[in-house]
């Protein structure tokens, strides 16, 4: 059975996402609209150049960042990706986070118009030297277990 345009686009996007490196960042340019909306817990930008800058920053501030796409669910106008991110982060050490991305499609141009990441940034904050201790204390006091 042939892949739908949405499934083809999602497959290509996942391939670039899973093999991301500073040298492959521009491969997204052929997959997203010029005014793509990119959002994660730390950034909310519009435009390919700004999305690219966010990803460049990730490579500049972490060692060996990698996304492993674990599953994808593709619909007519959007898709969901579940992934595992790993990287060595200064001060924090090895970081491993599971998250999800919602991709929105523009069928007229066959491109991604929106990349919205959903993941819990608490593991990052909890491991910071000063604020992490305070946050761990608050977490223990709020925990039901």
Automatic annotation (TrEMBL):
InterPro entries to which the protein is assigned, alphabetical: NTF2-like_dom_sf (IPR032710), SnoaL-like (IPR037401)
Q: Kindly give the Pfam families that the UniProt entry links to this protein.
A: SnoaL_2
Query: For the SnoaL-like domain, which residue ranges apply?
Result: 12-115
Gene3D superfamilies listed in its UniProt record? 3.10.450.50
Q: What is this protein called?
A: Nuclear transport factor 2 family protein
């Amino acid at each position: 059975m042939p892949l739908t345009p949405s499934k083809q686009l999602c497959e290509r996007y996942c391939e670039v996402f899973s093999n991301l490196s500073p040298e492959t960042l521009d491969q997204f340019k052929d997959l997203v609209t010029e005014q793509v909306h990119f959002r994660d817990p730390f950034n909310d930008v519009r435009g390919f150049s700004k999305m690219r800058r966010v990803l460049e920053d990730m490579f500049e501030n972490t060692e060996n960042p990698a996304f492993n796409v674990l599953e994808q669910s593709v619909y007519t106008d959007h898709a969901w990706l579940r992934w595992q991110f790993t990287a060595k982060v200064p001060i924090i050490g090895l970081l491993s986070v599971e998250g999800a991305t919602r991709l929105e499609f523009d069928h007229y141009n066959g491109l991604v118009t929106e990349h919205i990441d959903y993941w819990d940034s608490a593991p990052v904050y909890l491991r910071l030297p000063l604020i992490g201790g305070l946050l761990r204390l608050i977490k223990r006091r709020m925990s039901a277990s």
